Amino acid sequence: MEGLDEARGEIGARGSVEPGETGHARRRHPSAKEYVRIGVILVVLTTLEVWTSYSGLPHGLLITMLFGLGFVKFVLVVLWPMHLRFDDARYSRFFIMGASGAGILFLVVLLLLKAFAR
Amino acid sequence: MADTTARAAPVEHTSTGLPSTKLAMWLFLASECLLFGALITTYVLYRGASTTGPYPNEIFDIRYTSVSSFVLLASSLTMVLALTAAEQRDFARMRLWLVATAMLGLTFVGGQVYEFTSFYHEGLTIKTNLFGTTFYVLTGFHGVHVTVGILMLLSLVGMSWAGRLPDDQSFPVEMVGLYWHFVDIVWIVIFTVVYLIPQPKPVG
Fold first, then answer.
1. How far A25 CA lies from chain B's nearest CA (Å)?
2. Which domains does chain B carry?
């Protein structure tokens, strides 16, 4: 999730800020073309995921690849369609708080109950 | 062609300088992360712990679920295209994309209903085993969220048609869009964890 802040910082440097009619600043969102490009990337990644699940790769490598691909898709949707790459950093903080809370819950429960050992 | 400038939402001045509605939406989504985090954790915790079948490997049809995943991904694209149209103040096109998003959502939910029905006929109910319980609760909660999203989308279309949305219609579209994309990212995780990762051998 650190990538969110980095990416946002990058766009913050070059992204334009639109002053709103009522005083709220809103950054410009991507164009339709950029969204389509992200959509195509997501389709390719999903196809790769499905192919990987049938590939017969060793278990460890398979799990790593599937989680890796899933994570990239997750981040792409959060950064582009959900606009965290372009919006105020405070929105990202809220989301990172929830998402990392869920991740910590996942790891703590599974480690405590030794679910990974099965 | 209308300009591509994002226009301001008709919201009050706030001490944060940010629209409270949008902050509240992100806070809500953060809490939803915890809800789905708990459900996914429970599913993973009981993976391979069922003592009776049917087991996941026997009933999952990855190809079928992959098509559902593509449908939901496509709906995220139509949702952002609706937002782009709203920002360009092309409200007819915005409504078209919103209806397309709702239809794709309906297709996804229809697919899920079909999947649940076929699993039921194969003997998997919510009470059959730990897999059935955790699977139906997790994917059922997600399906309910998609259904709520469809209702929000159709309400938005109806309100836009009736002229009951504010002059800047992009703000409500953006809020509903955030919810819709969140439902999409939850599915990305569910698809990987539940369907794609191979299941351990059953204990029985």
1. 8
2. 20-196 (1.20.120.80)
